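Notebook, p. 212. Picked up where the previous page left off. The plan for this session was modest: take the two constructs that came back from the sequencing core last week, fold each one, and keep the raw output in the notebook itself so nobody has to go hunting through shared drives later. Recording the first one now, exactly as returned: residue sequence, then the structure token string.
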Amino acid sequence: MGTRRLTLMLIILAVLTVVAGSVTHHAPYTPPPDEEGQKTLNERPLILVHDVTPYYFDDLRQIIAVLDEYNYSNRTVLFVIPVFDTTHYGDEWSLRNHPDFVNYLHELQRRGYRVELHGYEHTYHEFNCSYETANEKLDNATALMNSLGFGNLTLFLPPAWALNNESLRAILEHNLTVVMPNWLILPNGTRQRIWNREYTWYIGENQVDDRLSVALHDYRKASEDGIPFYLSVHPGVVNRGGGLDFLRAFLRTICGQKKS
């Protein structure tokens, strides 16, 4: 009789453990407690906006409008393409040809948004190339950005995450920190662990809640592990379906405030 009772208790405990785990996975984000048992505020996520180019001017404005609702300029990095997709458009979307867009970027800078580098032309796997080619592209990119008033660049996000050892060496020699999905690679070659993910790749309106649950779970886990959390978005992608609804809900939860 005692054995049966013990077996029953073990089964009940196992079921409760599974249920608790499921509830925890889908629970809203709450900061982990400090040593005194009180909730601590973690460093807020960085928002990384890829593909910043005049080609996506209207889409970028929509993204900025959502970020501004939560005063998120100081935690947002705009990764700029100096000359977008020369394979298909030539120099049509070069920053030089769009002073209105350049002025807009400077306005965003003054408001706290950070401007950094996202390749040169953003052609297919652009930086999966030789050291010499990468070095030339970086020289051209930084020279163009400097000529337009965007000096002191410190971050480089490779298009499509495509790199090799040769191109990486050229980037680091330009004193740029490389942003990847799991690592920051510093100019001295050391690596810092990060969590950098995109949750809005052509999601439908009916997927917002599920994607938000996953993102908040990831943020909670990264915070508990002491890993900086970055959220990537692409103009022209996040603007479709439920993307901006996700971004707004994510920021509302993280910032702990209602839409202003």
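Okay, moving on. Second construct, recorded in the same format:
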Amino acid sequence: MSDTSMPLEWTAQQWQNVQQTIYEEARRARVAARFLPLYGPIAADAETVPAEVLGVEKPTDPCACPEDRLHVSESEPLRITTIAVNVPLSSQQVAQPDLSAALSLFRRAANIIAHVEDALIFRGASGLPSGMPPVYRVTGGIPNHGLYDRGHQTKVPMNTGDELLKAVAHGIAELESRGYIGPYALALSSELFVISETPNPGTLVLPSDRIRPLIEGSLVRTGTLPPKDGVLVSLAGKPVEIVVAADIAAKFLQVSAEPRWIFRVSERFVLRVKERDAIETLIHI
């Protein structure tokens, strides 16, 4: 490991503890990455990736049969997004044998990055968390829309567990009608998740226990969605994926004049929606 990556005062084991702490915290805090397939890592210096949008086109040969055919659009490539948080450490914090203060700061930085990642994946630029400390920076490609805004819409009431179950069943039927089979992943807002974990009146049966056999995939909660909405995604054939250019990690930058040891925790990724028909957005009315 080069000197630009690891401060000279730390041992290889201490630096490994820092990187492991960051990785584990991000893995714990992420939501979308729990169910969306990951593609990569790709070249660390890549700035774009092919969009690979699947569609149907008319063949150039008028005698071709059938009349239409599948194709991958060579549309504008997707720009990779970078999320970064700088972590300044005092000389005393750097010198701690167990790095307890430093690990707390690195852990918090990883948590913030994971939340911003989910906000971008589910809602795009409009979903960036307003309550998050403004210590992060997003550069590169910032998507205008996330999963929530790209899906087809199922608009039904979802005030009770039974209504939520019916909404999910309807969403699955819509996906199947477009040729997208299970397993499915279901992301629910905090309010809908509470409804899914509240027993039906007069029984001990949880709505989530009836939903899971339908989706055959992950059921997760996210605070990035509107209060009573959800997103249903078909996972068969990987129509939606997260392209990873560089997984989350820390890098030592410099010693400032204060002095502070400045580190940067960052990751580089992009959401690739190859088939938007594989997404069904559940909207409460």
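Notes on construct two before I forget. The domain at 147-238+278-284 is CATH 3.30.2320.10 (hypothetical protein PF0899 fold).
Flagging for discussion at group meeting.
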